[in-house]
């Protein structure tokens, strides 16, 4: 089995470009958990796992720039959801591999990149998605930058569903059953309050 060579490199993409509609329209990345912003928490988990960090954001750009290089959705793919952020990240990526995670998963595994990249580096696929308890977490993924044309074609054809595009790209699921809390989404104020009280 081959392993990742040092010159291939990994870029991490923090997806923070959503509308936060279930949070009342606030920028979820700057909501705080135990006094630390969610974006800062996730960036701190991703940074040691990658050679570079990109932030997909569409507001509060200067604030996000303190965490990493900011990329914004292009005009062509505006309002296309998380795939627009992924497209911007892939377009800006200067390494062979990209790992992506949303800003509302502050308990992400510290070995997310290594585990997601394992089946990619031995050639089984170009895309891997995290799964725990039988449930896929499609926005937590690792992929080859060679998938950028495929993603653009999908978006230009009107596609918007992350899982649908991943299925077309031959995604593999990587189980994280040993870390069920790691993918606990914070979609609502109640979710954040519950985790705060953990």
Automatic annotation (TrEMBL):
Compartmental location: Cytoplasm
Keywords: Cytoplasm, GTP-binding, Magnesium, Metal-binding, Molybdenum cofactor biosynthesis, Nucleotide-binding, Nucleotidyltransferase, Transferase
Record-listed GTP binding positions: 15-17, 28, 73, 104
Main location: cytoplasm
SUPFAM superfamilies tied to this protein: Nucleotide-diphospho-sugar transferases
Keyword tRNA-binding: no
Positions of the MobA-like NTP transferase domain: 12-166
EC number from the UniProt entry: 2.7.7.77
One Pfam family, short name: NTP_transf_3
Cofactor: Mg(2+)
InterPro entries per record: MobA-like_NTP_Trfase (IPR025877), Molybde_CF_guanTrfase (IPR013482), Nucleotide-diphossugar_trans (IPR029044)
Any one GO molecular-function label of the UniProt entry: molybdenum cofactor guanylyltransferase activity
Binding site for Mg(2+): 104
Signal sequence interval, chain numbering: none
Reaction equation(s) it catalyzes: Mo-molybdopterin + GTP + H(+) = Mo-molybdopterin guanine dinucleotide + diphosphate
Entry's free-text remark on domains: The N-terminal domain determines nucleotide recognition and specific binding, while the C-terminal domain determines the specific binding to the target protein.
Family of this protein: Belongs to the MobA family.
Self-association and partners: Monomer.
NCBIfam families reported for this sequence: molyb_mobA
Function: Transfers a GMP moiety from GTP to Mo-molybdopterin (Mo-MPT) cofactor (Moco or molybdenum cofactor) to form Mo-molybdopterin guanine dinucleotide (Mo-MGD) cofactor.
Record protein name field: Molybdenum cofactor guanylyltransferase
Organism of derivation: Chromobacterium amazonense
């Amino acid at each position: 089995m081959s392993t990742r060579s040092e010159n291939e490199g990994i870029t991490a993409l923090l997806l923070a470009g959503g509308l936060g509609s279930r949070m009342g329209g606030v920028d979820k990345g700057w909501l705080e958990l135990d006094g630390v912003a969610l974006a800062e928490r996730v960036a701190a988990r991703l940074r040691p796992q990658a050679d570079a960090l990109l932030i997909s954001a569409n507001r509060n750009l200067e604030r996000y720039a303190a965490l990493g290089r900011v990329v914004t959705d292009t005009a062509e793919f505006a309002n296309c959801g998380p795939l627009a952020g992924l497209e911007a990240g892939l377009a800006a990526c200067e390494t062979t591999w990209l790992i992506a995670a949303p800003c509302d998963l502050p308990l992400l595994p510290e070995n997310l990149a290594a585990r997601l990249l394992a089946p990619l580096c031995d050639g089984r696929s170009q895309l891997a998605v995290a799964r725990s308890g039988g449930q896929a977490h499609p926005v937590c993924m690792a992929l080859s930058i060679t998938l950028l044309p495929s993603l653009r074609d999908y978006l230009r054809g009107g596609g918007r569903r992350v899982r649908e595009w991943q299925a077309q790209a031959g995604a593999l699921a990587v189980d994280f059953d040993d870390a069920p809390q790691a993918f606990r989404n914070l979609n609502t104020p109640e979710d954040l309050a519950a985790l705060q009280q953990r």
